[in-house]
Amino acid sequence: MNGSDNVIEVEELSRRFGEFRAVDRISFSVRRGEVFGFLGANGAGKSTTIRMLCGLLAPSHGRGRVLDFDILTESEKVKQHVGYMSQKFSLYPDLTVEENLDFFGGIYRVPEARLAERKRWAIEIAGLTDKVSSLTAELAGGYKQRLALGAALLHEPTLLFLDEPTAGVAPLARRAFWELIHTLSVGGTTVFVTSHYMDEVEQCDRIALMSRGQIVALDTPDELKRDPRVGTLAGGALPSLEDVFVALLGSQKGAP
Fold it and tell me: What pTM value is reported for the model?
């Protein structure tokens, strides 16, 4: 990455599906160890961006490097070195907890000598030490969520993509999940996360706000609240992130 401390660098990245441009010339970078948030409504282009960055979907235009691998020409290397947790947790419901971990250990090519230790770690962070032989379909949403996170981290990636990982999960489980995210970040893992929960996005180091395939704004939560397009509340108080979201999307819709 030309000597920089960025683990993701994107320039003019686009993806078309026929005439529809799902991602439209976005450029940004993500620093090592950041919790980087992608905020936007359904259909804004968040998941498409993640799939391109994970090497699962080829861009139609532009350039991108992830962990110093080219996402177009070295997509297989990208897949091997990142962790990815999709909206649906990526688990197989008809497999047990341990069988799911064995499966993902194979997918990520975790050496057999290392896999047993990594499985113990994943089971521990998921709080499933007494449910190793349970079918995944029988687990509550919060347990499935943490198990999917453990599975995505079996190969110890330094960059983790989480695509709306807490959608439909109870508030207490969401809070526990974010505690895990911050623990990972402190340990040096870079986390790229999409969410539509404002209280979660508030915890990110920086946020990119996406709308209609474009990045409307990118900054820290506090700086976004000071964006001149948003304004301040009565008495000079800073707006909430929800206010920022509404104001910036409104300014984009009104643009020529």
Answer: 0.89
